[in-house]
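#data-curation
PF: Archiving a pair of folding outputs for the training set. Convention for this channel: one message per protein, sequence first, structure tokens after, nothing in between. First:
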Amino acid sequence: GLSQYSSDPRTEWDLSTYSTRDQVLEAVRSLRYKGGNTFTGLALTHVLEQNLKPDAGARLEAEKLVILLTDGKSQDDANLAAQTLKNLGIEIFAIGVKNADEAELKQVASEPVELTVYNVLDFPLLSSLVGRLTRVLCTRIKEKSSKESTGSAVKDIPVDMGPQLSPADLKISAVTSKSMHLSWTPPLRWPKKYRIVYYPSKGGNPKEVVLDGAVSSLQLSNLTSHTEYLVSVFPVYDTAVGDGLRGVTSTLPLSPPRSLRVSELSHNSLRLSWKAAQGATQYLVLCSAAPDGAED
């Protein structure tokens, strides 16, 4: 399975989409590079929520591996999301290219980092890792499988999150041109934290707020007026991530000035007056000559 991410993670194909090596290689050759921001925490949450579920092809008896490929430092909290995956027994391998932060890669990756963290100076050099990485991955799978067969406990990803781990009924209220209020019904089992991610639907930068699990409301401020926002609320536990809540709401437009009037005309001046716009701190007045043929 493969997902690409920037500010919004996108599943390219699920674990169950292809069944042969040639099909996977052809899919990789046809892949379009996404580009953009580096919200690694959001991407890892997406992998857990969307890509490692049984309906996406994840088999409960199979070992779970995530290979993170990044060329930059994360713009959100990657460590919290990574720790959730690792608590579920999911192995994370971190591969950095160019401007990746090696300290962050070591935080995100599973132990021992000597086997799970790789860094190269440019994308063409990734090919030099393939042989070694393949051997390490296969060895780790064999080791974990042998432990399981000897009776060691192996954690499975919860199949049914349900109301036990997932909040419900996201309400967005008190919407103004610059703010909105979020509230939701907490799950039966309170999470350790909530991750709230919000961003303009037309490609703006996502922002993230982390709340204590005992809180179930939030005021979002300093928003852009007259803009549609996508909002997600993720409950985070020590060993799981519940299903997220999602909502879409537009902020109100800024109040415009009204009733423009022109008076005190002379050969080189005129006076303008208008009804004030609520909340305005300044006005920009633009004046230009009317085009030829236009009304005076």
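PF: Second:
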Amino acid sequence: EPIQERFFRPHFLQAPGDLTVQEGKLCRMDCKVSGLPTPDLSWQLNGRPIRPDSSHKMLVRENGVHSLIIEPVTARDAGIYTCIASNRAGENTFSLELIVAAKEVHKAPVFIEKLQNTGVTEGFPVRLECRISGEPSPQIFWKKENESLTYNTDRVSMHQDNYGYICLLIQGATKEDAGWYTVSAKNEAGIVSCTARLDVYTQWQQPPQTTKPKKVRPSASRYAALCDQGLDIKAAFQPEANPVHLTMQSGLVESDDL
């Protein structure tokens, strides 16, 4: 008896979901379909057929996976994609949305404010500060002379904020802290460096203990927030303040006679 030919309507065994791809990158949509006879596949963008060209390719691998490859993705490729599988038994479809994200901006790091040569009296805190911009946000590296500063200690710490301010904070400067300091900023677009010198002066003679202690008026300046125990980092590291150099006279001194 003749063998009766059987037909099976297409059925998607694998289909992608919605995609977000950055402009200029590669987008790949993979699917796998069953059916008898083997279904034919076609693609549409917002209801319009997609024709193969230099940036749109349709491939079929030996394992039966069909792929729509778009490279490079442009803003015109955003929209609703529909894949249609059909044979003599019928057809089946699936749809997804492709969102094209704006192309990532790359800007090499640049110094808005450079490190400044600084002097401090021995035993007092000091901060070396600069301001840097760049896209994406650059990595920051510090060096003293030719030695890398790779981690924070209780006395020497490195900080940065969301406004581009970078600082190296030294609590209780010593003669050994004097020297040349270099800060470098690096991202995918480039690298930039800046160097400045720190001088540490001999401690001045202390006044007699009978001298009436000075009162320090609280200040909002992040560069003048000194206290008996050293520098209050949280109070000192506020981006809206204006830079000034730290000296023994940091803070506004007022007398009981005023």
